[in-house]
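All the exercises in this workshop are built on plain-text protein records. Instead of coordinates, the fold is spelled out as a row of discrete tokens. Once this layout is familiar, the rest of the handout is easier to follow. The record below serves as our worked example for the rest of this section.
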Amino acid sequence: MAKKPATEKKKITELECILDFCANLSRKMILSGANLERVELAVERICHAYSLEDVSIRILSTYIGISAKDSDGYYAFRQYSIKNPGIHLEKLKKLNRLSYSVVEKKPRPEKLQYLLEEAWNVKEYPDWAILLAQMVAMVCLCFIFGGSYREILPVVVTTAVIHYVTLLVSKPGLDRIVSNAITMFLATIVAILFVRSGLSNNGPVIIITVSMLVIPGIPLVNAVRNLLCGNEMNGIHQLAKALIETLALGAGIYISLWIFRSQGALDSAIVDTITNPFILIGLSFLASVGFGIVFRIPLHDLILAGIGGVITRVALILLSYAFPDNRILYISLAALIATLYAELLASIRKDPSTYFVYPSIVPLIPGDLFYYSLVGMYMGSREVFETNGLNCLLTLLAMSIGFVLSYVISHYIRKAKHVRLVKKTSQAQGGSSDSHS
């Protein structure tokens, strides 16, 4: 059998290196919390930069498949599965910048894997810093949800329980559905014990608060956004996964409530809602900074994360006063303002908007509505369940609408800039040709 020429082997190797890089880059971006549309766009640009043809991309939150051929007609295909994607915004930022750098500079294909590994290796926060940030964020949310100083210790302890239980159940590689149920089961028991010991009289606020650490609010919003944007396959898949994970959280809470039902420990709450807007704004700033650390935003960008939370809270306060009876409207507008802030920073910094969106929308995540809908189901109160469940769904829908509107506005702004740039370049080239002639 005749051997393939050396040039042919090199061509195939280069094509495989490019697709290996694209598939691995996609997987790492999704593991870091990237939007699927951004990942697909990054892969398209890279394949175009290296003059690949017949590019086919199939990206889900759990699967990646990429195929292409080079200019000589050689095909290659790569596919990967993805398990338990999370949020690591510092890695996402570096991976996003790497994708732009590769398109611009087109390094040798054999060097791409080294560049990817270099971008993936970032300086991590120590575990104690992550835990401390979680505690600070949860205490702030506790006050926002109507807790008092008596709930500080229970929230701190329950946050620590969730933190270490999450680390423990992740080691054997348990599915997130199972780990969510276990985590909230134990967290609810801790809250009940605090109530029964007399150290707290507000068990619901404790659970509402700490559930914010595990409730898949961002995946739910992204799923609805994908459905609204016409990306039905990804939207349905993400929505089903997020809903099942949410039901697992509810199962953990429900079982704990059922075990202690004779005590009625969490049937009612004493809520002293904060109405001072300046306190709310300050708490929102600290909560977004805390979640910024949890999402692995580096120290020099935490102020921007906190400002995003402040902008969202201010918008939420003003808009809820202006449209008190139209929840979907004021949540949509608040989400729009938050995402436009993120898009503006992303445009200036050349970073993914996700990097600034996630900490900014913390004030919008409906943790309290999620909890009370579950309590309504547990107590057999159809009215409580339907009212809070409907408001929770409307909030997620409204956030998604705000995201979509921001995406559309940003898309057309970028398109207009691109058209002006192309026109300016054409005019410059035309002027240069005239001068030569």
Remarks:
- The CA atoms of residues 260 and 352 lie 46 Å apart.
- Residues 382-436 form the longest helix (55 residues).
- The mean pLDDT is 83.
